[in-house]
Write a structure and sequence with these properties.
The chain is mainly beta. It has one domain (about 120-425): Beta Barrel (Maltoporin, Chain A). The protein is about 5% helix and about 55% strand. It contains 6 helices and 27 strands. It has helices at about 5-10, 20, 30-35, 100, 235-240, 420-425, and strands at about 15, 40-45, 50-55, 55, 60-65, 70, 90-95, 110-115, 125-135, 140-150, 150-165, 165-170, 170-175, 180-190, 195-210, 225, 230-235, 250-265, 265-285, 295-310, 315-330, 340-355, 355-370, 375, 380-385, 385-405, 405-415. The strands form 6 sheets. It has a 13-stranded antiparallel beta sheet with strand order 9-10-11-14-15-18-19-20-21-22-23-26-27. Strands 1-7-8-5-6 form a 5-stranded mixed beta sheet. The longest helix is centred in the first third of the chain and has 6 residues, at about 5-10.
């Protein structure tokens, strides 16, 4: 949204452009956004940050990337956000309940990332970004190329990161806090008088070490592979290396999106379909570093349908959105059961613009069904099968008023909704990354 429309929206919205994001020293996109008032982060190392809005995080904040709700095991402390910040052209933060437009989980607000914005017609643009950070020796590079020829537009970009162990004044180098990333993405599309149609794709690939912090009783130095037959004191070569030791994580997130917006007389129809595949592997056996102790294979199909109707002086939107999701366990250990999830919500939202203000409001109904599968470990039933259904009504009403230029007064009342996650309903086991049951 532009600066003028953001001022008129009754809910608090902060927009940050690419130029501002690049000026903020950070190691990931959430780290960059944590400088916004009301936004903070839970960080477990330079590669993992989880967003919090006004003190609420995890499954109480919805992340939207290029119009699609990001889904990637966000219930875990050490499960970061699988978005390449070097590809983001703009970020928007909506503070406050936003379940009306986005459904379950948007209690604290919404963080939206835009990565694929068409360049002007008849132009081609290339860019190269380099980043170096002295604390952990981070080296990062990004290259992109975009073009637009008579409405046929496209963009492709790729990035690479490599970081060693970070340092602090108490420990010096913190063993195994290193990470690396290889990402690429882009889109191809057509923009015409009838609207636009874009096909978007992205691939995120990250490998990161998990800090254990074990120390040798005699020397006080960091220990590698603590508690295993390979246990030893870490050497200077180990601390200077960028090789990721056990325990570590490998995370891939693949996404393809069909984003369409059609002009139909005086109304507009938005149709968005997306497929995401989140592959999260956790390794913790030094004797067999390729053994996948945890392996979550999460598949999500997202769908969105918005019909914008001008009804006299009111701008009204009717919408349906939701997702179908399945999770499979492919590792040696099982922390949550396999499950299928179906989520659907319908809403009506309307707003009217006056000379010095805006009045808006709407209602939404959500329904979510979770079908969990049984799991037997040896002779013990670790997870029993169950089916749970959740539904709720959300709504909001708000007003913004501009008594004079550059002064805007906003008031908004909203009711949000959050269905419990599968991890809250049925997790059973020790999570090695957090050392918690």
């Amino acid at each position: 949204a532009g600066a003028t429309s953001i001022r008129k929206i009754p809910v608090p919205v902060t927009s940050i452009r690419r130029s501002a994001l690049l000026q903020i020293p950070s190691t990931n996109i959430v780290d960059a956004l944590s400088h916004i008032p009301g936004v903070s982060q839970l960080s477990t190392g330079p590669a993992i940050s989880k967003p919090f809005i006004r003190g609420l995080g995890y499954n109480r904040v919805v992340t939207i990337s290029d119009g699609v709700r990001q889904e990637g095991q966000q219930w875990g402390d050490e499960h970061g956000m699988e978005i390449d910040e070097m590809s983001v052209t703009r970020a928007e933060v909506v503070k406050g309940p936003a379940s009306l437009m986005y459904g379950s989980d948007a209690l604290a607000g919404v963080i939206q990332f835009i990565s694929n914005t068409p360049v002007a017609n008849g132009t081609y643009r290339g860019n190269v970004l380099m980043n170096y950070q002295s604390n952990n020796g981070l080296l990062a590079a990004n290259a992109g190329l975009a073009g637009n020829n008579n409405g046929f537009n496209w963009n492709i970009n790729g990035s690479y990161k490599s970081a060693g162990d970070y340092r602090n004044k108490y420990d010096g180098k913190v063993l195994n806090s290193r990470f690396n990333e290889k990402n690429f993405g882009g889109y191809i599309g057509l923009n015409k008088s009838w609207g636009y149609s874009h096909l978007i794709f992205s691939h995120f690939n990250q490998q990161l070490g998990v800090v254990e912090g074990d120390r040798d009783d005699a020397t006080g130095e960091f220990i590698l592979f603590g508690g295993s037959p390979l246990e030893r004191v870490a050497t200077k070569e180990d601390l200077d290396s960028r090789k990721v030791f056990a325990p570590n994580q490998q995370v891939q997130h693949n996404k393809i999106v069909s984003d369409n917006n059609f002009a139909i007389k005086k109304s507009r129809l938005k149709v968005n379909l997306a497929y995401q595949n989140n592959l999260r592997k956790e390794f913790g056996n030094p004797e067999d570093p390729d053994e996948e102790e945890l392996f979550f294979d999460l598949k999500t199909l997202n769908y969105t349908l918005h019909w914008q109707l001008p009804v006299k002086e009111w701008h009204t939107t009717l919408g349906v959105n939701g997702m179908r999701q399945s999770n499979q366990n492919k590792g040696e250990e099982v922390l949550i059961p396999e499950y299928n999830l179906f989520d659907i919500g319908g809403f009506i939202y309307t707003q009217r613009f006056f000379k010095k203000g805006t009045l808006s409001g709407g209602l939404r109904f959500d329904s979510r069904s979770i079908d969990s599968k049984p799991f037997i470990e040896g002779t013990e039933e670790k997870f029993s099968a169950f089916t749970r259904n959740f539904s709720n009504v959300s709504g909001s009403i708000g007003v913004s008023y501009e008594p004079v230029n550059f002064v805007t007064v906003k008031a908004n009342i909203a009711r949000g909704f959050r269905a419990p996650t599968l991890a809250e309903l049925a997790s059973n086991g020790t999570h090695e990354g957090t050392n918690r049951y």
